[in-house]
């Protein structure tokens, strides 16, 4: 688990898309912060066949979020719930190139869901 992961200045980040392999496993580590209607970063780049380890951190006050990742053809690849103030680690290896949308579809009562409010991002797999 990646609790307390600290990144120093020597770590390489390309356009806020991800981090270096810090375990020697070849995995790309990506920390995604979930806040009110936003993912940070919201644009990610990965390579087909390269494992990714997502650290999802919900920094919203009292608001649960989820992280849904769909393939280019709309197939659900990841579904993870992250309660307010919590975090989750998800491992994923992309097998298909193209744009993979990720979003939160949580909704309170009759209000628009979080995706409709702009809580969406893109993982481009090359």
Protein described:
- The chain has a single domain (28-125), classed as Cupredoxins -  blue copper proteins (Immunoglobulin-like, Sandwich), CATH 2.60.40.420.
- The chain is an all-beta fold and 126 residues long.
- The protein has no helices and 9 strands.
- The protein is globular and about 40 Å long.
CATH uppermost class: Mainly Beta
- How far apart, in Å, are the first and last alpha carbons? 27 Å
CATH homolog superfamily: Cupredoxins -  blue copper proteins
Q: How would you describe the oligomerization state of the chains in this entry?
A: single chain
Strand order of the largest sheet: 3-9-8-5-6
Q: Average pLDDT value?
A: 83
Our count of domains comes out at 1
Question: How many individual β-strands?
Answer: 9
Q: Which second-level CATH architecture applies?
A: Sandwich
SS class: mainly beta
Task: Describe what is shown at a glance.
This protein has 126 residues and is an all-beta fold. The protein contains no helices and 9 strands.
Annotate the secondary structure layout.
Elements: E1 28-35, E2 38-40, E3 43-46, E4 52-58, E5 65-70, E6 76-82, E7 87-92, E8 98-103, E9 120-125
Parallel strand pairs: 1-4, 3-9
Antiparallel strand pairs: 1-2, 4-7, 5-6, 5-8, 8-9
How would you describe this structure in keywords?
126 residues; mainly beta; Immunoglobulin-like; five-stranded mixed β-sheet; four-stranded mixed β-sheet; 9 strands; disordered N terminus
